[in-house]
Amino acid sequence: MDTGSDTEERELVARAAGGDRAAVADVVRLLQDPIYRLALRMVWRPADAEDATQEILLRVVGNLASFRGEAKLTTWAYRIGVNYLLNLKRRTPQEAQQLSLDEFGEGLRDGLADEDYRGPEAALLTHETRLNCSQAMLQCLSRDERVAYVLSDVFEVSSEEAAWIVDASPAAYRKRVERAKRRLGNFLRSTCGLANPDAFCRCSRRVEKAVELGRVDPRRPAFATHPVTPGGRGVAEAEQQMIRLHDAAAVLVAHPDYAAPQAKMEAIVGLLRSGRFPLLE
């Protein structure tokens, strides 16, 4: 259904908050992919992003009665999602190690091959290495810097909206974004051959080491074969965007338009329709 206008969104939410199970399902389907992509950028691994998305969507549905239309529904849901993700007890490996970008860069030097990988599925695994690496480097930022960068440069949310999402003043939010951009830009220009041809690292020369360390699974690539939103960018389109832009930010932005796993989302809808969720009792 078309939920493009503010009025339609408010009407949809009102029906959902009133217990209309079809409307609740529509809300979940409207939000599932944006929330999943937010979670994926924050927690790195798809399995963890699935779990976080489920928890966030349940919180969103549980709070629909408090929606007042002060922001777009997706923006309002981002605020709930960001609050959950910033306070998540589970830590990514980089967070657990308190890994800095400098330390991450030194790790990239270790095992860098002299020549490009030309083994089975070379193009696919090179894509997977790039996508996995750019996800991992985000985890070296503090959570507040990471979410500020993702909202600003990946999702292109305005600074006013993003400040509201993270519950900060616009000035404080912009400082976080500037700090994150500066740190990531310096790192990419000194390390990543995609951002700077003179830098030492090449995705195609990291493939074998990434496979050896278990960061890339040749049998089940986590990102390069990930389902995308219908009509959204795939890996090839994202790669072309990165080539056209050819700057440090493009390396991090140029990901496919990942879709939330349909089976998990249908399970959420099934739970909400089961009568066991308080909103719909």
From TrEMBL:
Q: Which residues form the RNA polymerase sigma factor 70 region 4 type domain?
A: 135-184
Q: SUPFAM superfamilies, from UniProt? A: Sigma2 domain of RNA polymerase sigma factors (SSF88946), Sigma3 and sigma4 domains of RNA polymerase sigma factors (SSF88659)
Outline the extent of the RNA polymerase sigma-70 region domain: 28-91
Pfam families given in the database record: Sigma70_r2 (PF04542), Sigma70_r4_2 (PF08281)
UniProt keyword annotation of Nucleotidyltransferase present: no
Q: Which one GO biological process term can you cite for this protein?
A: DNA-templated transcription initiation
Is this entry keyworded DNA-binding? yes
**Its Gene Ontology molecular function terms?**
DNA binding; sigma factor activity
Task: Enumerate the UniProt keywords alphabetically.
Answer: DNA-binding, Sigma factor, Transcription, Transcription regulation
Family note = Belongs to the sigma-70 factor family. ECF subfamily.
Recorded protein name is RNA polymerase sigma factor
Origin organism is: Nocardia yunnanensis
Q: Taxonomy-wise, where does this protein's organism fall, top ranks first? A: Bacteria, Bacillati, Actinomycetota, Actinomycetes, Mycobacteriales
